[in-house]
Amino acid sequence: MKTISRRQFGKGVAAAAAATYAGISLPEFAFGEPQPKRLEYPKGFLWGCATASYQIEGGAKDDGRGPSLWDVFSHTPGKTHNGDTGDVADDSYHLYKQDVQLLKNLGVNTYRMSISWSRVFPTGKGEVNQKGLDYYSRVVDELLANDITPYITMFHWDTPAGLQGGWQSRDTSKAFADYCAYVSKHLGDKVKHWMTTNEFICFTDLGYKIGQFAPGMKLAAGPVNQIRHNAILAHGLGVQAIRANAPSGTQVGLAENAIVYVPVMETDEHIEAARKATRDSNAPFLTTVLDGKYPESYLAQEGANAPKVEVGDMQAIGSPIDFLGVNIYVPLFARADGSAKGWVEEPMPSSYPHMYSPWINLGPECIYWGVRNVCDIWKEKVPAMYITENGASSDDVLTPEGHVEDVDRVMYLRNHLTQLHRAVDEGYPVKGYFLWSLLDNFEWADGYSKRFGIHYVDFKTLKRYPKLSAEWYKNTIATNAVE
Ligand code: PNW
Description:
With 483 residues, the protein is an alpha/beta fold. The protein has one domain: Glycosidases (TIM Barrel, Alpha-Beta Barrel). It is built from 17 helices and 15 strands. It has helices at residues 6-21, 53-56, 69-74, 92-106, 117-120, 130-145, 170-187, 200-203, 205-210, 221-245, 268-281, 283-291, 296-302, 313-317, 365-378, 407-425, 468-479; strands spanning 39-40, 46-50, 110-114, 149-155, 193-198, 251-256, 261-263, 323-327, 332-335, 344-345, 385-389, 430-436, 455-457, 464-466, 481-482. The protein has an 8-stranded parallel β-barrel with strand order 2-3-4-5-6-8-11-12. The protein has a 3-stranded mixed beta sheet with strand order 7-9-10. The protein starts with 5 loop residues before the first helix and ends with a strand. 4-nitrophenyl beta-D-glucopyranoside binds next to loops.
């Protein structure tokens, strides 16, 4: 074989280049700035922000509002960071017009908010508090006047304290349906998109099994499974109630934090493992709602602790939905392991990077795989999908000039929207994205210590300041692209 020295090789390349380039004008891109492909979203994609009643409203005792389990819990010593409560929060009860202007300035076309059940029914059922409903009517009018479409969650964890037994009682599911019927009847001419519940696991397991959230109980498996059942039953009865009371054309769904598995590698076997993991791990909630029945494996695993199901329950629970909202923050990793189950969850190394809240592990592929797994498993059961929450906390510092340079939140959002674009590009039916959250707020057990807003709130003055992330999101919306 003929070998050439390095010097000869160099000479050869230089000579060849001289011959090639002589007298030839090269296309500009060869020496210009690199031109990344702009990740544009489809025309008509909905951009929004999300909030929840107890986290932003304050006005806890105003105009006849009754207490919720979260009022009771947050006022119980030792339950929230620093004893923080939602008594005032962002005072959006009084400052909602300012908040609508924040939305308007971002250029969003939609807003996800929730209704405080105990503002409308102070004890959860029976007598209506007209002033409570009037407040939501004013908020909705203000949104519509600013061309912002409301997407409303009926229940984001603030269970009326007046309901005996809370979610331990089936009557709560029935009371929820009556509340949904009433609200959708009275606001249904203006609000066309409803979500029944938000994140089953957070008001069932976290509230009644782990005790970290209201009402702070630690019950055994049997009662917890019944509570989970009552929660999904409430969703199903709520769907039926909204359909029966709102005008035709109304869209009904739910917002669920599906547990998301990312395949450790994008090979067929691990992709299949992540899909199986998604179906198995969401067994008591999303899987049962979308299948309309409990998986055999879940019933077998729970044995005598399995939920008691009454006639008609499964039909209600499996009511078809018009859209599925998924709240996606974090990944878990699945690997095919050759077992009968077919998958194993990878342990997370202690070095795994996270955002300011220790549970927000950074793994932007979760938003792509969350969408893909759910749509691949349930296909026609999910005619449309929204990301109803995605966002992160950051150790925000307000400068004397009134800036917050939350580059970590921008990094988190940019990477998640890059991954979401992949799902949209592959044809998954994602219609919109709601960023959590419009503004800093009462972060449940973490009180005011963890800020998730793209607007900073000074909790002493209640003044709102746009962060860098608000500027970034505004640009994303204006260009309809990730930049
Ligand atoms: C969601 N997890 O909660 C809620 O819907 C919001 O009210 C909340 O403020 C937001 O996310 C940020 O926490 C979650 O542990 C709480 O995976 C915990 C988890 C996920 C979502």
